[in-house]
């Protein structure tokens, strides 16, 4: 049971990444647009207007994107019929439950609503049923994926044979989406109030709530479940939508000016009874990550390098430098985090606590910057001219402080407790680092990973997310973590008996492609696929 639950959660997190992966596009387009026209937000420049609107094409359609991406990501064999079903399902639900449609069901004249009647209508949350409703997108995506996995191989009688198999899936999804709409018709007003109040309670915790989020975010990294947590704070699941509201910049500011109550004050904006403040408030669940990823972790890398045995510093230096550069420029932290996560878990707990403190401090002083991918230098530059950014330069100053804090704490703890960080202890620990800096080809790396997983015949399913290969094996006993780590990968995670995650880093797609190619030529049969 535990394996099934963990496996389902892992797959869900992986599917979420399919939707999250489009966010950098919005960040780049809108970031450049705000750089071109930081005052008019597109009003003074046609080019800026085009770029900002193009970025909005992502942000304004996140519900659709999540529905399609999750349906596709959770489908057994990643077939386009699942993605199409997600699209149809989302269209069905959002049209049936659109404000105008529901008003017709209830016999309500929306134009005539005023006073308490208008407030009561708003409290039901029907206006939140739109193209950006991520929660609906998640529900529909799961429904479409389940429908695909259940019906994609169903055979109908000969006179209906044309609609058999995968052609049946969109039809069944549309029908089940009607059922889902009926359930949500009664459930959504209650759920909306619950989610809104939950979101407000988190927002009302202010800097403390932001710090707790940052702490738990890092703690969940080893499990891969941080994506699910992030969706609550970064997207419009319970009304916070920190990334979307930040990247929308001028549109969010205008929405704040038009706000008439806490419900209409965007995301983490603060309603004081008469006005809605968003600048310095929205972005609190992002800003504090920049000092950690750009400065803190590189400080830890320097400490680990200096604490390594002198005879092994050349190899460890290459490993630490590559990880530090990835963390600084792109915000990809896993190569560094996994270098000490399991060999010195106390350091990782300290890292999680320092992350929480950094996010809380940045939120308390209202230093905000946002990102579409992660909190690295590239996203910092892109967000600096966004009208939602507030004293973003202080995050750089704070980052220098965090560099020193990380370096001093890591250096002291490694020495005082004799922790087995890279370059210390058994020389075998460095085998992977040596290989990773050598000339091993993708084919050799993939071949050794397959051997470490127990061979092609032991692999049941393989996929990848932003930085990891996600594998389901048939038998956990033949899996040899040492063999896998010898390829130079930063880490191997075993969230359940049959689930194995191989942390590769930003180049994971190319390793996956080679693994998939070698499996296809070996004659291995993966779950949900024909013999390859």
The share of residues in extended strands comes to under 5%
Radius of gyration: 25 Å
What profile does the largest beta sheet have? Answer: 4 strands, antiparallel
Major sheet: arrangement of strands: 3-4-6-5
By secondary-structure content and strand pairing, the structural class works out as mainly alpha
Overall strand count: 6
Q: Count every helix, treating DSSP H or I runs of 4 or more residues as helices.
A: 23
Distance between the termini: 30 Å
Shape: globular
SSE pattern:
HHHHHHHHHHHHHEEHHHHHHHHEEHEEH
Helix share bin: 55-70%
Mean pLDDT: 87
Low-confidence stretches: 427-440
How would you describe this protein?
The protein is globular, with a radius of gyration of 25 Å. Strand 5 and strand 6 (499-503) form a beta hairpin. It has 23 helices and 6 strands. The chain has a 4-stranded antiparallel beta sheet, with helices on both faces. Strands 1-2 form a two-stranded antiparallel sheet. Helix 4 runs antiparallel to helix 5 (80-96). It is mainly α.
Task: Compile the SSE list and pairings.
Blueprint: H1 2-20, H2 23-36, H3 46-59, H4 62-74, H5 80-96, H6 99-106, H7 115-123, H8 134-151, H9 168-204, H10 206-219, H11 226-234, H12 242-247, H13 250-258, E1 270-271, E2 276-277, H14 289-307, H15 313-330, H16 334-340, H17 345-364, H18 377-383, H19 393-417, H20 431-436, H21 442-452, E3 459-464, E4 468-473, H22 481-485, E5 491-493, E6 499-503, H23 508-522
Antiparallel strand pairs: 1-2, 3-4, 4-6, 5-6
Helix pairs in contact: 1-4, 1-11, 2-3, 2-18, 4-5, 4-8, 5-8, 5-9, 8-9, 10-11, 10-17, 14-15, 14-17, 14-19, 17-19, 21-23
């Amino acid at each position: 049971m535990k394996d099934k639950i963990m496996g389902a959660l892992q797959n869900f997190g992986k599917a979420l990444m399919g939707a999250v992966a489009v966010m950098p596009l919005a960040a780049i387009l809108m970031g450049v647009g705000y750089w071109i026209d930081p005052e008019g937000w597109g009003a003074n420049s046609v080019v800026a207007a085009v770029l900002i609107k193009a970025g909005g094409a992502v942000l304004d359609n996140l519900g659709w994107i999540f529905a399609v991406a999750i349906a596709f990501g959770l489908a057994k064999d990643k077939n386009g019929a699942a993605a199409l079903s997600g699209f149809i399902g989302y269209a069905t639900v959002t049209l049936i439950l659109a404000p105008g449609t529901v008003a017709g069901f209830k016999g309500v004249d929306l134009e005539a609503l005023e006073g308490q009647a208008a407030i009561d209508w708003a409290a039901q949350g029907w206006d939140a049923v739109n193209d950006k409703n991520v929660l609906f997108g998640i529900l529909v995506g799961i429904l479409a994926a389940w429908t695909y996995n259940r019906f994609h191989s169903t055979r109908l009688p000969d006179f209906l044979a044309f609609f058999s198999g995968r052609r049946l899936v969109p039809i069944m999804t549309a029908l089940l989406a009607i059922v889902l709409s009926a359930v949500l018709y009664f459930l959504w007003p209650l759920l909306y109030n619950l989610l809104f109040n939950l979101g407000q309670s988190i927002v009302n915790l202010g800097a403390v709530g932001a710090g707790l989020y940052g702490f738990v975010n890092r703690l969940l990294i080893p499990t891969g479940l941080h994506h699910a947590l992030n969706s609550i704070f970064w997207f419009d699941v319970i009304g916070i939508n920190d990334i979307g509201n930040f990247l929308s910049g001028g549109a969010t500011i205008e929405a704040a000016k038009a706000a008439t109550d806490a419900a209409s004050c965007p995301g983490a904006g603060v309603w004081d009874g008469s006005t809605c403040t968003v600048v310095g408030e929205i972005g609190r669940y992002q800003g504090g990550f920049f000092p950690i990823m750009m400065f803190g972790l590189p400080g830890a890398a320097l400490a680990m390098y200096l604490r390594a045995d002198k005879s092994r510093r050349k190899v460890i230096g290459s490993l630490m430098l590559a990880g530090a550069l990835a963390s600084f420029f792109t915000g990809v932290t896993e190569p560094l985090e996994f270098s000490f996560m399991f060999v010195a878990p106390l350091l990782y707990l300290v890292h999680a606590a320092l992350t929480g403190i950094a996010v809380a401090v940045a939120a308390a002083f209202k230093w905000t910057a946002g990102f579409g991918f992660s909190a690295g230098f590239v996203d910092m530059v892109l967000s600096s001219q966004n009208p939602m950014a507030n004293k973003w330069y202080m995050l750089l100053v704070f980052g220098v402080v965090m560099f020193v804090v990380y370096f001093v704490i890591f250096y002291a703890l490694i020495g005082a407790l004799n922790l087995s960080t890279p370059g210390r202890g058994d020389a075998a620990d460095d085998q992977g680092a040596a290989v990773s800096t050598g000339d091993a080809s993708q084919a050799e790396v993939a071949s050794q990973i397959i051997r470490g997983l127990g061979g092609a015949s032991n692999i049941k399913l393989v996929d990848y997310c932003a930085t990891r290969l996600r594998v389901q094996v048939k038998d956990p006993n033949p899996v040899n973590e040492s063999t896998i780590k010898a390829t130079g990968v930063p880490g191997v995670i075993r969230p359940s008996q049959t689930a194995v995650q191989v942390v590769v880093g930003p180049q994971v797609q190319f390793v996956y492609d080679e693994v998939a190619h070698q499996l296809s030529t070996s004659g291995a049969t993966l779950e949900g696929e024909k013999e390859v």
